[in-house]
């Protein structure tokens, strides 16, 4: 998302990369960008629709994967990508291991004529893949080809973890393998200032309604895509809203507190809040919440995850 962010890279020992043969695929579904670009409702954010030339082709394997691990690893990976500069180009990456959700990892390899891929393609592709997983409820290993103007530019591999992270990546089929480097995205210490740490104080809304898990994750992914475009250290100057989208009834709202001096609410803090929200909710209850975002002891902004129309001052119609 921003030039001052360092894309910290850890190179791993070369290992097997997944390569699917026709015998390994029992389904092939393509998702076009219209699935997303016409269904994300935002307020107070730049309108950056998915390029109509971009789509994914999702090839399913046979091995089941853990649903919660897949969801949480995808949120964490998408947050890492959203923190990077929008035009940044990625060579490879592998998702970071999450101690509480260790059973799935995501790996990306470029394809086609280039040895790297624009960050936005990976964000779009990951979002679209997760929409397909959530709506189709088919939690199996997959190869997700990222296609631009009819040319494959990269592939996302969703795999279950069968050994400690950074070991060999299992293909959908044991035939046909290739080797190469992997790398992990690591949050930069530049933004997360250790002398002035941020905190997201989350609490349930009194008498709050229950949230559907699939709808919650869909709006989290929509929100991460929506806030990936502004520069990470730029300030949230007005209320921003993501959702409801795709027929769902959940929206996410963030607003900054009026301040004349630093610290102020930055988009990076919004991304980090979106990263931690799902795990907080899953460990307690899936209900509507309010959020306070603090940098050090300073309140810089508020947020909420709520049903549309549940509050008296709610605006149910957004242009």
Provide a quick synopsis of the model.
21% of the residues lie in helices and 31% in strands. The chain is an alpha+beta fold and 319 residues long.
Question: Please, could you describe this protein's structure?
Answer:
This protein has 319 residues and is an alpha+beta fold. It is 21% helix and 31% strand. It has five helices and 18 strands. It has helices at residues 34-37, 67-82, 119-136, 213-226, 267-282, and strands spanning 8-11, 15-17, 27-32, 42-43, 54-64, 89-90, 93-94, 104-110, 117-118, 140-148, 151-160, 178-180, 183-186, 198-204, 240-242, 250-256, 289-295, 298-307. The strands form five sheets. A six-stranded antiparallel sheet has the order 3-5-10-11-8-7. It has a six-stranded antiparallel sheet with strand order 4-15-16-18-17-14. Strands 1-13 form a two-stranded antiparallel ribbon. It is globular, with a radius of gyration of 19 Å. It starts with 7 loop residues before the first strand and ends in a 12-residue tail after the last strand.
Rg of Cα set: 19 Å
With strands numbered from the N-terminus, the spatial order across the biggest sheet is 3-5-10-11-8-7
Q: What composes the largest sheet? A: 6 strands, antiparallel
Helix and strand string, N-terminal first?
EEEHEEHEEEEHEEEEEHEEHEE
Strand portion: 25-35%
Q: How far apart are the first and last residues' alpha carbons, in Å?
A: 26 Å
Number of helices: 5
Question: How many beta strands in the DSSP annotation?
Answer: 18
What value does the average pLDDT take? 77
Oligomer: single chain
Give the uncertain stretches in residue-range form.
1-25, 32-38, 164-195, 312-319
